[in-house]
């Protein structure tokens, strides 16, 4: 896995874990945080807790994220480094924040079953499965960050998650701020 850019001040890397809802972002991020002692920041929880939203979307049954408020809230902690940010979107975060962008991908049948168990309505279910089919989050990540720091990882089973945690734990242990170029 390639080394991304760093602000030069960070002693620990920042990772973004993204992917369609139901791909295992929170499960993997939680396990990775335990293995690496990095801070796990679940953006959905942060938005609810700190009221970083512009109200509720009745159709999608979720808060309307205020990207500016989220970025303002995270600025200092991201500059410190040592964070795993977990969110299903990625294009609004500053590029300079991340040393690696991990896009979790799940087989459509597995994803459909996971989202059905969560009680997603038919519209939300099909929207998310289509998002996965067309690899929307992978494309968004590749358009928003240097391609050499974007990695897609399979996330269908517990074994996949365990393997991903092991791979990323090795990457974190081998990350050195001096090997990263400074970024504006």
TrEMBL record:
Upper taxonomic lineage: Eukaryota, Viridiplantae, Streptophyta, Embryophyta, Tracheophyta
HAMAP family referenced in this protein's UniProt entry, alphabetically: Adenylate_kinase_AK6
Database matches in InterPro entries: Adenyl_kinase_AK6, P-loop_NTPase
Family: Belongs to the adenylate kinase family. AK6 subfamily.
EC class name: transferase
Recorded GO CC terms: cytoplasm; nucleus
Subunit and partners: Interacts with small ribosomal subunit protein uS11. Not a structural component of 43S pre-ribosomes, but transiently interacts with them by binding to uS11.
Gene Ontology terms, MF aspect: AMP kinase activity; ATP binding; ATP hydrolysis activity
Region feature (LID): 117-127
Positions contributing to ATP binding: 22, 24-27, 118
Species this protein is from: Crotalaria pallida
Region (Disordered): 1-26
GO biological process, one term: ribosomal small subunit biogenesis
Identification of the protein by name: Adenylate kinase isoenzyme 6 homolog
UniProt main location, coarse: cytoplasm
Keyword Ribonucleoprotein tagged: no
Catalytic reaction(s) noted: AMP + ATP = 2 ADP; ATP + H2O = ADP + phosphate + H(+)
Role according to the record: Broad-specificity nucleoside monophosphate (NMP) kinase that catalyzes the reversible transfer of the terminal phosphate group between nucleoside triphosphates and monophosphates. Has also ATPase activity. Involved in the late cytoplasmic maturation steps of the 40S ribosomal particles, specifically 18S rRNA maturation. While NMP activity is not required for ribosome maturation, ATPase activity is. Associates transiently with small ribosomal subunit protein uS11. ATP hydrolysis breaks the interaction with uS11.
